[in-house]
Amino acid sequence: MSLGYAEKLSYIEDVGNVGMSEIFDPPRALQEKIEKLAMMIQKSKHLVVFTGAGISTSCGIPDFRGPKGIWTLQREGKALPEASLPFHRAMPSMTHMALVELEKAGILKFVISQNIDGLHLRSGIPREKLSELHGNSFMETCPSCGLEYVRDFEVETIGLKETPRRCSDVACGARLKDTVLDWEDALPAKEMNPAEKHCKMADLVLCLGTSLQITPACNLPLKCLRGGGKIVIVNLQKTPKDKKASLVIHGLVDKVITGVIEQLNLRIPPFIRIDLLQIIFTQGLSLDKRRVNWTLRVASVHGKKAPLPFIRSVEVSFPKGQNMKDAFLHKQPLQLKRRTSRNAKQFHILLKLNFTDGCGCSCTQIKIPIDFQQVSDESYKNDKDAIFLKLRENAMQDLQCGQTAIIERKAIVAPKSAVSVYALVTNIVVYDKTTKAFESASLSNGCPKRRNEGLYGIEISWKRRKGRNRKVHNR
Predict the structure, then answer these.
(1) Cα–Cα distance measured from residue 39 to residue 260, given in angstroms and rounded to the nearest whole number
(2) CA distances for 56 relative to 173, 374, 437, angstroms
(3) Residue 291: CB atoms within 10 Å
């Protein structure tokens, strides 16, 4: 959860029980419960998972009601914790990626989330198999045509308000709205209806990291009971629904789910994050027709005024003989203006893109060919899914991030411009294969330190430094 989100919410006095003490099942009892849960999942025909803030705490995102939760600290008059990294760089936990594996194996049928961090969607859960009841901080929606836009930055507003951007559909163009609910907002039907439908169909609803206090969402898991379904709750604190559950597990969600994955002989997949940016090269003749005035801009794919949150700065280098000084761009918009002789021979501009905190490597490089004699008017669009698949394969083979590939190129006649969209691998996260990594902490039912432990208690590669198919736009 973003600390900014808590500040944007309207004031409300009663936020429920907060600061409740945490409970840890003894090691032997915990293992027995993990094995029982694995058996229940294996036998299930329609598994639904219902998640809360507790599955994202290992991602560096604080919860609400835990001992160090946002509302707990506020009630105690204490300062809120400092964010360990930018919200937009938070990466999925082992639990998020384990759910992806269960979905790919055909076991998990639907995910219902109360979280607004967008990590289920980012991890790879298909949009048509996900209900984000309280919204997504990184999503905008068009109230006119229904298109959804997933952003790489946190949307500025909450409360279903209008944002500065418009729908990119040329037949629409309506002003977009954020998707995150404020206290007074009702749960949207397009999220609530499928969630209710799947809970009624479920023979097992697995509740992970939620206090089950916020209504009406907290009552959704109970809808499986009428059809003979069962509820399992994994949480470190007691919940009001414990008596309705067939099994209650008091343990760290990552530990429990990783144990289940091991019991099912599955493997938690790695997470590879790919971000997009566009490089815009615009040129025009000077008044005397002897020189070319040109501009190079590194920009977001989400609109002219949208931020580019994962780029800290850009270093621009020119080859020897071009008689042009190198440049350092550190303020957005990241833009360079220069003038070159019209008769200049073809050359390359080297861009060193320096990444912000939270990225898995410090930088990457892109070489831009420049030819004023033969200006290409070629436009093309590569298969985005195929490009992403190849980038992921290469990233896993190299065990490093920073790979780049061009997605599309668009030539514009006036002003004469070339817009190229690039995909960049900015993070690789490799998760522990089995719960054996936790054995050293079995006595405390806690997370041990592991080799190359990253921001979220998961191993990160730093090698380089040394149905209801919804239309979702990632641009």
Answers:
(1) 9
(2) 35, 52, 20
(3) 18
d(CA 78, CA 65): 14
The angle at the Cα of 47, spanning 214 to 261, to the nearest 5 degrees, equals 105
Q: How far apart are CA 455 and CA 66, in angstroms?
A: 20
Distances (CA, A) of 469 to 127, 128, 129, 266, 458: 7, 5, 9, 27, 32
Q: For residue 217, how far is the Cα from the chain centroid?
A: 22
Which two structure tokens, joined as six digits, stand for 39?
């058996």
- Kindly list the catalytic residues: 134
Amino acid at 132: E
Residue-level length of the chain: 475
**Burial of 380 (C-beta count, 10 Å sphere; 0-12/13-18/19+):** exposed
| Phi, psi at 45, each rounded to 5° | -105, -25
Residue 329 pLDDT: 97
Instruction: State the pLDDT at residue 184.
Output: 84
Rg (CA), the chain: 25
User: In whole angstroms, what separates CA 118 from the centre of its chain?
Assistant: 5
- Write the DSSP symbol of residue 453: B
Q: With beta carbons less than 8 A apart as the criterion, state whether 297 and 335 touch.
A: yes
E strand spans, 24-151: 47-51, 108-113, 130-132, 139-141, 148-150
Cα dihedral 167, 169, 170, 176 in deg (nearest 10): -10
CA dist., res. 175 & res. 160, Å (int): 12
The pTM score is 0.86
> CB-based contacts of 341: which residues, under 8 Å, 6+ apart?
290, 291, 292
**Residue keyed to tokens 């298109």:** 147
Averages of pLDDT over runs of 10 residues in the chain (475 residues) are 56 58 94 98 98 90 64 63 80 97 98 96 97 97 96 94 94 96 91 98 97 92 97 96 98 96 96 97 91 95 93 95 89 94 88 95 94 80 96 91 95 90 96 45 32 36 40 54
Distance CA 342, CA 344 (A): 6
Q: What was the pLDDT predicted at 444?
A: 33
How is residue 23 written in tokens?
């409970």
pLDDT at 252: 96
Collapse the DSSP code of 276 into the 3-class scheme (helix H, G, I; strand E, B; otherwise coil) and give the result: strand
Query: If you search the block for the tokens 């641009």, which residue do you land on?
Result: 475
417 forms beta bridges with 282, 412
